[in-house]
Write a structure and sequence with these properties.
The protein is built from nine helices and five strands. The protein is an alpha+beta fold. It has three domains: 4-65, Beta Barrel (OB fold (Dihydrolipoamide Acetyltransferase, E2P)), CATH 2.40.50; 68-137, 5' to 3' exonuclease, C-terminal subdomain (DNA polymerase, domain 1, Orthogonal Bundle); 151-197, Ubiquitin-associated (UBA) domain (Helicase, Ruva Protein, domain 3, Orthogonal Bundle), CATH 1.10.8. The longest helix has 18 residues, at 120-137. The protein starts with a strand and ends with a helix. 27% of the residues are buried.
């Protein structure tokens, strides 16, 4: 079984990269959140791998992650009823790992259901099936921090930015960068727009 792939990025597509290692090119599917950071041709990368055979499509896919912790959490998501590799990858594309873990531990259903690839029932199942596991395993050292975050206003602000034409990834990154003084969704949007205008 492949644990990780280390090599040089030779090509980039919308959601994947080709990594050359030992003269062999491996196509690795990446979360959108990481894709923009790691997908530079010629860059040296080390990606932690989840190999998956799709029996319906008859295809073999490699899902790649920046850290071993992200891969472990990806595997944990796959234990939830109704969550497959593509939807689990979509979840990790939409939000950084500490934020996702915290939302699950807090039982923030409204925040989770706004993430890509998650419907109302899946959001409930993720909280129901993973909350206790996260508390037991203490995934992520910072999982207890940031308890005062307002996920509802963050979600509203992100939705508004996406409506304005920004990608979900850039919208979330901008909202994460706003100051603590921005309490309401409107204040978050105003600050986020200023941040996005500088890029």
């Amino acid at each position: 079984m492949i644990s990780y792939i280390a090599g040089t990025i030779e090509a980039v597509s919308d959601n994947s990269v080709i990594v050359n290692t030992g003269g062999v090119g491996y196509r690795v599917v990446l979360p959108e959140r990481v894709h923009g950071i790691l997908s530079k041709v010629g860059a040296q990368v080390k990606l932690f791998i989840y190999p998956n055979f799709n029996s319906r499509e008859g295809s073999f896919e490699l899902y790649g992650f920046e850290t071993a912790e992200e891969l472990s959490f990806f595997r944990l998501l796959l234990t939830v009823s109704g969550v497959g590799p593509k939807s689990a990858q979509g979840i990790l594309s939409a939000v950084d790992l500490p934020t996702l873990q915290l939302a699950i531990v807090k039982g923030d259903y409204d925040y989770l259901r706004k993430l890509s690839g998650i419907g109302p029932k899946t959001s409930q199942r993720i909280i129901l099936e993973l909350k206790s596991k996260l508390l037991e395993k203490n995934f992520g050292a910072g999982i207890g921090g940031g308890q005062d975050r307002d996920f509802a206003s963050e979600g509203e602000a992100i939705d508004a930015l996406v409506t304005l034409g920004y990608s979900a990834y850039h919208a979330r990154e901008a909202i994460k960068a706003v100051t603590a003084e921005a309490k309401t969704s409107e204040e978050k949007i105003r600050q986020a727009l200023k941040i996005l205008a500088k890029k």
